[in-house]
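Quick one:
INPUT:
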């Protein structure tokens, strides 16, 4: 249970970083954007949108439902590749995403 609480706190940190760097959106993208068959909806959503509207809600739902955590999980490498190096808040976001990747992998000692 403590492990899930640590993951939930990390999800809140991700949201905090997105908000701090004005990347949090008040309204969801059109429903069609979520019908993408590409990983991370990379053809229809920005990385920030995907984090806000897909990753965070799904991870909270997994934790709320007591479901098993994903086995293969690596969000930080995608965002590192997808975000421009000059993107405001990029480095701070990568730090919290890498921490989430480690937590889910069980490398949180």
């Amino acid at each position: 249970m403590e492990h899930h609480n640590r993951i939930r706190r990390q999800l809140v940190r991700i949201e905090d970083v997105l908000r701090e760097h004005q990347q949090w959106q008040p309204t969801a993208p059109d429903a069609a954007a979520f019908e993408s068959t590409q990983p991370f909806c990379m053809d229809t959503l920005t990385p920030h949108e995907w984090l806000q509207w897909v990753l965070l809600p799904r991870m909270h739902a997994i934790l709320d439902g007591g479901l098993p955590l994903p086995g293969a999980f690596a969000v930080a490498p995608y965002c590192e590749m997808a975000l421009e190096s000059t993107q405001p808040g990029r480095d701070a976001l990568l730090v919290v995403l890498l921490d989430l990747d480690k937590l889910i992998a069980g490398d949180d000692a």
